[in-house]
Amino acid sequence: MRSVSYLYEIAKAAGRQPVSFEIFPPKGDLTLEAAHEVAAQLADLVPDFVSVTYSAGGSGNKQATADVAAMIHDDFDIPTVAHLTCLGATEESISHAIDDLKRKGIASVLALRGDRVPGAAPAEDAPFRFAKDLIMRLADEGFCVGAAAYPEGHIECTDFKASVAHLKQKQDAGACFFVTQLFFDNAYYYRFRDAADAAGIDVPIACGVMPFLGKAQIQRMVFMCGASLPSPIIKLLAKYEDDPASLRAAGIEYACAQLVDLQERGADGLHVYTMNQPDIARACTSALRASWSSAASGERTGKAGDRADDGAAVGSAACGAAAGERTSKAADPSKADRSPGGASADAWASGGRA
Question: Residue span of the signal peptide, if any (predicted)?
Answer without folding.
Answer: none
